[in-house]
Amino acid sequence: MVAALIPGVGPITAIGLLAGAFAGAAGAGIGAAAGEKRKTPWTDGLPEDEMFVYEDALRKGGVC
User: Fold this and answer.
1) Exposure string (b/e) for 7-43, b if CB count within 10 Å is 16 or more?
2) For 8-45, what is each residue's pLDDT tens digit?
3) What is the distance in angstroms between the CA of the first residue and the CA of the last residue of the chain?
4) Is-contact 64 56, C-beta < 8 A?
5) How is 13-28 classified by DSSP, letter by letter?
6) How far is residue 44 from each of residues 30, 31, 38, 57, 64, measured CA to CA in Å?
7) What is the pTM of this model?
8) I need a surface site. Which of 10, 27, 45, 62 has the fewest CB within 10 A?
9) Where does the pLDDT of residue 53 fall: very low under 50, low under 70, confident under 90, or very high at 90 and above?
């Protein structure tokens, strides 16, 4: 990478890459937490082994 040879640009590029990695990791964590909160009310009261039957039926285009 040529930018690493230019004084001042290499460190700025490295900081930008690290910031992007941290932002991506934070976004993934927030998205996973939000998805889990959203999924929970829909599955309350269903036994876990029955959930897979319904999920499979919906994937195949069925209506529950």
Assistant:
1) eeeeeeeeeeeeeeeeeeeeeeeeeeeeeeeeeeeee
2) 777 788 888 889 998 988 888 888 887 777 665 666 67
3) 55
4) no
5) HHHHHHHHHHHHHHHH
6) 22, 21, 11, 18, 16
7) 0.42
8) 45
9) confident
